[in-house]
Hints:
The structure holds two protein chains of two kinds.
Chain A: H1 2-17, H2 21-37, H3 44-69, H4 77-93, H5 99-124, H6 128-147, E1 152-153, H7 159-166, E2 168-169, E3 173-174, H8 175-192, H9 195-205, H10 207-212, H11 217-243, E4 245-246, H12 254-264, H13 276-295, H14 302-326
Antiparallel strand pairs in A: 1-4, 2-3
Helix pairs in contact in A: 2-13, 3-8, 3-9, 3-11, 3-12, 3-13, 4-5, 4-6, 4-11, 5-6, 5-11, 7-11, 8-9, 12-13, 12-14, 13-14
Chain B: E1 5-14, E2 17-27, E3 32-36, H1 43-50, E4 58-63, E5 66-67, H2 73-79, E6 81-84, H3 96-101, E7 108-109, E8 112-113, H4 115-130, H5 145-158, E9 163-167, H6 175-192, E10 195-199, H7 203-209, E11 212-217, E12 220-226, H8 232-240, E13 259-268, E14 272-280, E15 284-288, H9 295-302, E16 310-315, E17 318-320, H10 325-330, E18 333-336, H11 340-344, H12 351-362, H13 371-385, H14 401-413, E19 419-423, H15 431-446, E20 450-454, H16 458-464, E21 467-472, E22 475-480, H17 487-495
Parallel strand pairs in B: 3-10, 3-11, 6-9, 9-10, 15-20, 15-21, 18-19, 19-20
Antiparallel strand pairs in B: 1-2, 1-4, 4-5, 7-8, 11-12, 13-14, 13-16, 16-17, 21-22
Helix pairs in contact in B: 5-6, 8-17, 12-13, 12-14, 13-14
Amino acid sequence: MxxxxxxxxxxxxxxxxxxxxxxxxxxxxxxxxxxIASPVFFSAYNLFNxxxxxxxxxxxxxxxxxxxxxxxxxxxxxAIYAVTGVVTGILVKTFxxxxxxxxxAGFLVALSLGAINGALISATxxxxxxxxLSTQMIFRGIAMVLSQGQPFxxxxxxxxxxxxxxxxxxxxxxxxxxxxxxxxxxxxFLLHRTTFGIKIFATGDNRVxxxxxxxxxxxxxxxxxxxxxxxxxxSALISLAFLKTVTPTQGGGLELEAIAAGVLGGTSMSGGVGxxxxxxxxxxxxxxIRTGLVLMGTDAYVQDAFVGLVIxxxxxxxxxxxxxxxx
Amino acid sequence: MPDFFAAHNISKHFGSIQALKDVSLIVPEGKVLGLxxxxxxxxxxxxxxxxxxLTSDTGEMLYxxxxxxxxxxxxAEAKGISVFHQEIPICPHLSxxxxxxxxxxxxxQKGMPDWKYMNQKCIEFYENFxxxxxxxTIPIGSCSVAEQQLALLVRVLSRNAxxxxxxxxxxxxxxxxxxxxxxxxxKLKEEKQITFVFVSHILDELMELSDMITVLRDGQNVGxxxxxxxSAQILSSLIAGKAIDTKRxxxxxxxxxxxxxxxxxxxxxxxxxxxxxAVRSGEVFGIAGLQGSGRSALASSLFGAPxxxxxxxxxxGIEVKRMTVETAMDFNIGYLPEDRKSKGIFPDMDIAQxxxxxxxxxxxxxRIYNRKIFDHLAVEMANRLSIKMSNPRNPISSLSGGNxxxxxxxxxxxxxxxxxxxxxxxxxxxxxxxxxxxEIIASMAKEGYxxxxxxxxxxxxxxxxxxxxxxxxxxxxxxxxxxTLTKExxxxxxxx
Lengths: 327, 496
């Protein structure tokens, strides 16, 4: 009997050692709760729907996690998301360019805005919170000026819309999920399975020690800014293809949701700690709660408050776990 | 009349280490007692016992004729005994008055701080204690370090301190600032009958300020010297001890004639100036000097962190115009930083990653991180340096301080560097690990590595080094060759 007990203990220890286990359990508990409250919640249709809704936030959040792990933050992703859509919209609407090259141009713009963020921070060494708060306003302003505050709608048909959002594979499976999965696998490998990823962790964990180990920490940070901005660009194209419309105000607050998803998934705001899987599930939990509350017929205005509550709870639990680990 | 303050037969041990052994000393009222001794001699332990931060195992203290047994710092302060630390605890954005009064009971009126009272009182204190007129409203952060120290002195005195312990107060001060502080202390001593215990590494300062000096060595009081007997010679031989060290590792035959690294008039503004030396391969070269002498900065500048402002570094005959960390690594130089916690360890990463981090640098771009290779490297290094670990995937924090330090050494040995710069290689490790690390260093030299050690522990340098460069105030004070390398001479050069 005692041997059994020991084995159980070891198994439990192994499980609790995995940093992602807390958030996975939370996702399951929330799913069970909503399934009891509203049986429709646990259906293939709803599950696909949930993942589809997770796609836009999840893609950005996973890259943002890398940026937070490296010790920086990007508050301008929502604005980059808007600029990407607006640039694509103008190229199609005003310059009558085909949507494929237009979207590609929009994506390149996102990428260069990320490069600007990175260059700004590495050249001036301003705190990235302040630096990207200002570029957020600048980029949002650019979106507003370019569009003159007007939305763009796309009435033409193009394979672009199908590839980025509209197709359903095997009948029910929304294509956004493929994009989410692809970006997720890419991010996972980059952060957790390459030497570059180890350098990201090292830079965020102890910048001075990383510099003294010969790691070019500034370059790594710049690349993380570009990756995060690219994720915002990709996410914007998925949104554009799905809604067939863009507005210069889209993506407001997206940066904070992306950070929240990361924090839910166990990312430490002080850098050096984080996981792509955790962030993915963090983003998934946020969709779970929103969808679940809708299915339960809850007042739409309550949703944000509820999501906020869950984030606070998750962070409190996370801090407690880390505290007990360090003792 | 009883002594103002006396300690009798104080002993204290930490684990198996005897930090203090039967130490007795007497501090007469209105005098300055100098307290000298090298690192680890027991000065800090003694101070902590006097100010209530530690309690002694045996022995007793008498203060103004009565038994004195403080349970904590607050009780000692209430009785009039205060310490004045090396690092100044100030709130830089608050005014001088606010810093003087900061504490659990700030003078207040109707729940608001009573600035008028505090400012007025602060001016009075300054006039009373220091005979100085000041503006108490200027933020203390804009004052010089010496003025900040004076403010803290006023703060301590305003709380009725009668015995003030000055724990290396001059380390951060410039020469005129030291003079100013000393004048203030002398005045307080003569006019207000305040008593001081003055702890310092610098012999000249000790001799200038003290009325008598007590020297500690290996936890024991080895001498009380009266002012009339002060001399640098006597003091340094008392501090260093007469014992001739036999442990020294002599390896004359191993050093090659081939110059590995040469430094020509190297300077870094604010740290060191015009330093030149050459080190042959297989040689262990020491850099000695007090804190602030440029010792640590010189060691890290050789690795390009930060690059020196001017001068030349020649490695294997190749001139390096600007040494950066990258160039240094390209030239196969390794560097062990002085503060493991802030500059070495990746606290949230595992042992294998911590050991493999410098090797990671050599894998440019994005490559698959093959855990097994790094686990293997960690195990290999653990065997070579006898790092006690159960699993390379365990967090680095699971290792003891000594094993963490060996892991830091392993990080560089993994690259098999030709030149290894070690800055405080045994700081923060226990005695056992200290000698293990010393053995590792000696055996590396035997294998032909060029080793440069910067250390505040002169014993360590004496034990390991073939030659020692002594720095003082950023300048070369002495270069001790094999035949001139004695403990007395090293202490004399570094401390005066």
